[in-house]
Amino acid sequence: MRVGFVIKVQKEFYIRNLRYFIRTAKEEDAKILSEVRLEIDGETENMDREKGEAYIDEIGFKKIIKDDTKSENNLFLVAMVNDNIVGFSRCESNNLKRTSHKVEFGVCVLQEYWGYRIGRNLLNESILWADSKDIKKITLNVLESNSKAIELYEKFGFEVEGVLKKDKILSDGNYYNTILMGRFRNE
């Protein structure tokens, strides 16, 4: 298990008659994570990738989980419904001294499970972890058209730090901006 903050016991949530758990990812989750990520990438244009792009197979996810477990400043969480992974999030740091105070957050949830606060709870658990690790800043990127996500991030104290103009081209043939957001730890 991870040194420092770990969701040692699954945290249970019950929203709109759906019971789910959030816990730290395990290596045995790798195969399902590969499948879930591929499915999520095909469900929405809110992700950086189209379905099948930058594919991570079971071996790749095992390595990510193993590395995250060893790293003091990485966190990989999964959301479980009836023993099935329906979403996940990661906070990833790097080994550079000048940026060791921050992590980058990413989250994805199967569309069937939108509206149950799974993304919100993955974000909240990640913030609690980051604060416990004395991480000063959490960053994320979000497509400008994903207004629900932007609104959620703002509720959690994230603020717009910049805009990457015409950063993504979507299936409608139009270019969209990527919003760069950051949350600074309250001192």
UniProtKB/TrEMBL annotation:
- Pfam families linked to this entry: Acetyltransf_1
Transmembrane found in the keyword field? no
Tagged with keyword Nucleus:
no
Keyword list (alphabetical) reads: Transferase
**InterPro entries per the record?**
Acyl_CoA_acyltransferase, GNAT_dom
UniProt protein name:
GNAT family N-acetyltransferase
- GO molecular function annotation: acyltransferase activity, transferring groups other than amino-acyl groups
Q: Which residue ranges does the record assign to the N-acetyltransferase domain?
A: 20-186
SUPFAM superfamilies per the record?
A: Acyl-CoA N-acyltransferases (Nat) (SSF55729)
